[in-house]
Every structure is written in C-alpha cells, then in structure tokens.
Amino acid sequence: MSAPEVIVIGAGPAGLAAAAELGRRRIPCSVLEQADSVAASWRGRYDRLRLNTCRWTSRLSHSAYPAHTGLFPSRDQIVSYLEDYAQRHALDVRVRTRVERIDRHDERWKLQTSAGPYAARQVIVATGHDHTPHIPAWPGRDRYTGRLLHAAAYRNADAFRGARVAVVGAGSSGLEIAYDLTEGGAERVWVCADPANIMPRQSGGLPGDLPAIALLRLPSSIADAQARLVRRLTIGDLSSYGLTPPAEGVFTRLHREGKAPAIVDKDIIQAIRDGRIEITPGLESFGHASLVLTGGTQITTDIVIAATGYTPGLEPLAGHLGVLNQRGLPRLHGGKAAAPGLRFIGYLPRPGQISHMSREARRAAKAIKNEAPGRTCLPPWR
C-alpha cells in the first residue's frame, strides 16, 4: 500500500468525514484510531442516549440515515451509521493505533504512535471536543466512602437499583442519566446543579436544533431573547424547583465559552416537577458518606455520578506546538491551518454538530488540495 499524503487522527464523525472528503479529491489518506473500531466514543455512551439534534442536521455529506431511523437517532443507530459510512467510502482506518505526539520535522509531520512512527505532509486532528472525562478536584473527594464515577462510565440503571444517587451537573447527560435512574429503580435521585440554560429537544413537533441553527446567525442578544421566549413557553419557570437559568443567555454563553445548553425532553421536566428528580445547589465538597452543597446543606448518598463534562485532551499531542489556547482548544480550527500542514476539526460546539463537522472536513480537504495539488507524500517513518 502506498503511504498516505494525509494522516487523520480519530475515527469519529469528524475524522471519517475528513477522510471521505480527501478521498473524493483523490488525496491518499489514512485514519489512525486508538480504539479497536470506528465510532468508539459513541459505543461507550449510556444505553438511553439519543442525539440532541435531529437526523436532518446530523448527517455527513453524501450519506443519509436509513429510512427507519428515528427523528433523533439513538446511540446504536449512530454507531451503525458511522460503520456503514466508513465501509461505503472504503476508508483506510488503522485501529489500535494511539497517536501520542506530533512534531514538525523537515517540512513534514512526524507522529509518535503506539504502533510505531508515522509521517505525512498534512495532518488533520479530529479526536473530538469531548475526549477526556473530567472530574473536578472537589475537596474531600478522596475520603468519600461511596462510589464516585464519571458519566462516561454510566451505561444503565441496573447497578443502581435501591441506591441514593447524586448526579453532579445539569447538562444534557446529567439530566438524562438522572431520569434514567428514577425510571430504573434508584431509591432517591438528586441533581446538584449550578445555574443552567435548558432548552427543549422538540417543540410543537419541530426539532429544537432547526431554529437554533437559524438563531446562531443573529446577534447574541437577539438570539438569547428568542431562546428565553422558547424556554418560557415550553419549559416554564423551574426556579422554585431549584433549577434557575444563568444571567448569561444560551447563545452568548455558547459563543464565549463553547458551552451548549442542556437539551431535555418533557418527561425530564415532569420528573423534576413531580419531585422524582430533586434539584439541589451545586457540590462544594465531600464528607465520608455525604455531599456538602453550596450554602452548607448536606445530603447522604451511596453513589455520585459526575456529569461534569470532558476536556479535549490535546496537550500531550500538540501542547508543545503553540497551537492551543488556555482552555486546551485549538487556536485555529474548522479547516484553517493551525500550523503549516496541521488542522483541527470538530472542536466547535454547534447545533447540528455532525453536519457542522462535515462542512469543516470539506473545507479542510479543499484547502489541502489547493495547497499541494498532485503532490505525493513521503513514506512513513518506519
């Protein structure tokens, strides 16, 4: 097999889309994936998971979902879709190959991997915005005698029947896991929540991401006002239940720090109103068998699930290259070169995220084609 001109790191939606777009331009490409299959991060998510965005805005170029797919595809439907995408585009995906570091050498990129060194003139990093589970260093965490796990390790409620469980974080995953626990027989379920923006997954039969994509083009102040109106009409005021919105609006926060709102179904809202999901102030510290909340209240728990998000995990890979900002995200991404021949895609949270990744992949492939038309690559460092 001839050596690839471009190496793509990561076999999720962004990486597969990049490889397919390069293939359409007849640019040799290989995808390096640390897991043993494509779509590995999706396979590991909880059983109940569905996309927060609809199938119309969550597809890669030239690839529709099967006709039987639900409006909001499930975890398993996403995995199947990405598997089929890689097969139909005949992508060269090299699994069980973890990329540990990228360095510039003699006008090409040298990659240190678990399978040995590689090199290519161009590299696209597509390992994902939500890559490495993050659990804050809460005071007293080490002395807690209950079980502490990240939401990434949660699959279903079977192991939590009869337990008192606190979910820390009122994002999409946190609220959905809390609802899953109430349905699955947990004795008591709390959500430790700082102020959070919440939006409906669907309103009046219309997927919520469709108007969100349109509002994204407006000034944040106008878009925030529209989002507040939608929330008031569809969800209502949950302040008396402990769930208050932050002062900063949905789109202002999205633009400023890349933080998306929690997307929820009406069943979750009803469970909060019914008291089956109890909303508490945020977590301050741990006791031996309890949590100390903001304001000093304590609750006694058996298990804590940290729905506290992820970090990109790019520092070991590229932190020494000067291409990351203080939050560990690429300074330039979305198709633009962060350094000569080095690009990052899939690091900008947006409504209709998968389709947005596909557009980024197309821009990156077009730029690579324009930079080096007809150029062949150097062989890998073997």
Task: Describe it.
This protein is α/β, with parallel strands linked by helices. The chain folds into 2 domains: 6-131 and 312-371, 3-Layer(bba) Sandwich (FAD/NAD(P)-binding domain); 134-306, FAD/NAD(P)-binding domain. Helix content is 27%, strand content 21%. The chain contains 10 helices and 23 strands. Strands 3-2-1-7-23-22 form a 6-stranded mixed β-sheet, covered by helices on one side. Strands 9-20-10-11-16 form a 5-stranded parallel β-sheet, with helices on one face. Helix 1 runs parallel beside helix 10 and helix 6 packs across helix 7. The longest helix has 19 residues, at 353-371. The protein is globular. 42% of the residues are buried. The model is unreliable at 375-382 (pLDDT under 50).
Helix content range? 25-40%
Outline type:
globular
**Sheet with the most strands, sense and barrel status:** 6 strands, mixed
The number of domains is: 2
Low-confidence stretches: 375-382
Query: What is the CATH superfamily label of the largest domain?
Result: FAD/NAD(P)-binding domain
The helix-and-strand class reads alpha/beta
Strand order of the largest sheet: 3-2-1-7-23-22
